[in-house]
Structures are given as structure tokens and as C-alpha cells.
Amino acid sequence: MTEAATGTATGGATPSPSGSPGVPAAAAPATAALARALSAEHAAVYAYGVIGGKTSGGLRGRATSAFDAHRARRDQLRTLIAGRGGTPSEAGPAYRLPFEVRTAADAVRLAVLVEERLTTAYLELAADPDPALRRIAALAAQECATRAYGWQPVVAAFPGMPGRDASASPPATTSPATAQAPSQSPGQ
């Protein structure tokens, strides 16, 4: 089994650091970043299958929409890798989830984690010198951050940036939480 939603799925082939045979050396870093984003998308598609199975109603509709969006991104990344002479990895047969998903609240927490980790995967691709890849990466990261917010309306200063501990986030709920201001003691 491989890790879900980490961008490090090992179920498929990834280009070597020097690139795939027949791929120009200048294309190798972009192809490697595309391969890491593809691995993350493979894991996201798997995770959203689990999320959909643990939700119902509007949450399941949101999970289905996210599943479809990640399949479309996965297919786009596969096409980009192949177009650059690389060989896109295949999805692993199964992925180890970061925690057991028993309830709808667990499914929401997993969805947030998936989207945050995908945002991180697209940040690397956004640094590529190719403006077309930067645009794709920026749009994908924006979509992931928007979906994460839709699942759990908490705004990170820099979504997807390393150093943010996703496990330190407030517990996910199946409905938006209302924030309450802390009470002040007299004299403050």
C-alpha cells in the first residue's frame, strides 16, 4: 500500500532525476514536478472514493464534484507528462489513509487534508519557468484551497506552504462552525 494524498504514491513509475529516456534535460525538472502532482492526484481520487462512501446528501454531492475535478486534473497531468516525452505513473491499487475514516466528520477531515496536501504539490509546479505550467499549477492550487475552505472554513495565511501542521487545525465538522470571540475579563 502507499500513502494517500501525500504526493508520494509509489504504485507507479516516476521519472528518474535525470528524466525519462528521450526527454530533454531541461524538461526533466518539470516532468518530475508533474509526476509528483500526478501521484498526489492519484491518491486524491482514491481518497475521495472513501470520502464519498462515508458521506450522504450534500456532503456526498460535494465529494462527487471533488472526485470528478481530481480525475480531470489527473488526466490533464497524464497528458502533459506524455506530451513532454515522459511516462505517466499509474495509480496504485490501494492507498493507506492517514487515519481511519469511520464517520462523515472523519471524511470531511480527510477531504481537507487531501486538498491541503494537493495545494502543496502544486506549489512546486508553480515555480516552473514555463508560463503555461505555472498557470495550470496556480489554478489547481487555487481550486484545492477553495475546496479545502468549502469543507472546513478556516483560512491559512499561505495555503499549501510547508510548516503548517494540518493536524493542528480545529476538528472538522459536517457543517460550518461558528466562531465565538473569547470572553474578556472585566477591566480589559
TrEMBL record:
<feature type="domain" description="DUF4439">
    <location>
        <begin position="33"/>
        <end position="162"/>
    </location>
</feature>
<protein>
    <recommendedName>
        <fullName>DUF4439 domain-containing protein</fullName>
    </recommendedName>
</protein>
<feature type="region of interest" description="Disordered">
    <location>
        <begin position="1"/>
        <end position="26"/>
    </location>
</feature>
<dbReference type="Pfam" id="PF14530">
    <property type="entry name" value="DUF4439"/>
</dbReference>
<feature type="compositionally biased region" description="Low complexity">
    <location>
        <begin position="166"/>
        <end position="188"/>
    </location>
</feature>
<feature type="region of interest" description="Disordered">
    <location>
        <begin position="162"/>
        <end position="188"/>
    </location>
</feature>
<dbReference type="InterPro" id="IPR012347">
    <property type="entry name" value="Ferritin-like"/>
</dbReference>
<dbReference type="InterPro" id="IPR009078">
    <property type="entry name" value="Ferritin-like_SF"/>
</dbReference>
<dbReference type="InterPro" id="IPR029447">
    <property type="entry name" value="DUF4439"/>
</dbReference>
